[in-house]
Amino acid sequence: MRVPGIPDEEFIREEKIPMTKEEIRVLALSKSRLFVGARFLDVGSGTGSVTVEAALVVGDKGKVYAIEKEDNAYNLTLKNLEKFNVRNVEVIKGEAPEAIDKVNDILDAVFIGGGSERIKEILDRVDKRLKKGGRVVADAILIETAVNTVSAMEKLGYKTEIIEVIVAKGMKTSKGYAMISRNPVFVIYGEKV
Ligand SMILES: C[S@@+](CC[C@H](N)C(=O)[O-])C[C@H]1O[C@@H](n2cnc3c(N)ncnc32)[C@H](O)[C@@H]1O
């Protein structure tokens, strides 16, 4: 098992495909309560950074499903899986919530990094595959997305929490480290009770 925290620079990236940043991945995957052997779904895999980190945590006895609707992001996810030599992942090309029906498994945890416009439908569909005690973690930039996500989780009866994460990363200058702020991100998590 490898604990999450691969530096962003180690992933193959494309300018137009946004990535869930390292510190948010660490937090989101920790709040997912992943374990060796777990079944995990990443909705909106983008670069594949969350998918790769989750796959390394769950190991060969576990399984990760990744759903991505855009061709270029789907291909980038595949490239990063190849780069990190990750084999326990099934990448599904399609749009959530419909593509979630292609996941033929019972899940321990889900990360939602894309699909905010249809978050309620996505959560309803995820709920059908999530184990009791399983967790859903979502990140959001917009206040509206965060509110919609937390209220949809509450409607499902989940035990829910929301945090806002503000990270500043040190940049080395000739005089010392200057802290450069990153955009604040909401992280919402819910546990199926
Ligand atoms: C913010 S990026 C996710 C970043 C990703 N977690 C990473 O670390 O690279 C959102 C991604 O979700 C995808 N997406 C958005 N809505 C989606 C949907 N309904 N179904 C599947 N993918 C979706 C987008 O194409 C985009 O690649």
- The largest sheet has its strands arranged as 3-2-1-4-5-9-6
Q: In CATH terms, what is the architecture?
A: 3-Layer(aba) Sandwich
Return the CATH topology. Rossmann fold
CATH class: Alpha Beta
Q: Which percent band covers the strand fraction?
A: 25-35%
Q: What Rg do the Cα atoms give?
A: 16 Å
| Helix-strand category | alpha/beta
Distance between the termini: 27 Å
Work out the count of structural domains: 1
Report the average pLDDT across residues: 97
Distinct ligand kinds: S-adenosylmethionine
Annotated CATH homologous superfamily = Vaccinia Virus protein VP39
Number of beta-strand segments: 9
Q: Main β-sheet, in a few words?
A: 7 strands, mixed
Helix and strand string, N-terminal first?
HEHEHEEHEHEEEE
Count of helical regions: 5
Low-confidence stretches: none
Percent range of helical residues:
25-40%
| General shape | globular
